[in-house]
Amino acid sequence: MLDSKPTRSQPLTGSGSPQHEGGECNVVRHAQTPARCLDPWEAAYLRFETPEQEISKFVKRLKKMGAARWPRDAEILELFCGRGTGLHALSKLGFTRLAGADLSASLLAQYVGPAKCLVCDCRQLPFEDRRKDIVIIQGGLHHLPMLLDDLEQVLSETNRVLRDNGLIVVVEPWLTPFLSFVHVVCRSSIARRLSRKVDALATMVYYEQQTYKQWLGQPQAILSLLQKYFHADRCSFGWGKLMFAGRKKEGNLWRI
Fold first, then answer.
1. Average pLDDT over residues 129-151
2. C-alpha to C-alpha distance for 193 and 207, rounded to whole angstroms
């Protein structure tokens, strides 16, 4: 089905001195985000599946994407990490050098674990060049507001922070026949009444429809940008998903 993974991207509103927020959350702010109540999209995301269900899903997915072959001491960054269930999945698989980045402070605040989490805009990453071995994106790119320009910024930044031959893993919604069927189900009021999960998914699609539709409507342009910055090791489509894994292309491809 559609990925429930956050988060929607917003323009970077400012920066300041890093601010640590207590406990094991280990959150550092690199972007100012306004204090607010949980918005309808985030509320729907939180009821779509439990953290435990999402962690189990991500463990299976990461194994499918080749995580069993990755060095356990790899430095891994997850972009658009939301409440951190992807980070928990990586911990369960034995990875320890983890970081997460997301623009939503309210979602990041729900993460409790060893990874260092940063409130930041994924189009302007607060990392030095060639510092990460693997960057993972699960369901965040289709929330970018100005798709092709924003997507290129994210991919350029990812290329910049990856070490030579570094790996990117991307899993995003893709308009397959299965996803088209899911859209039909989500438009059914009966299905929404019978299934809280369908209702939550339909709510998320409604609130992200502008970015979601522009993502699904530009497949070739999206693939071209992925291939501009990364050599594809894997690029497959199925069950409503794009599953892409690629190695960093050499040369100064970063955008200024």
1. 97
2. 19
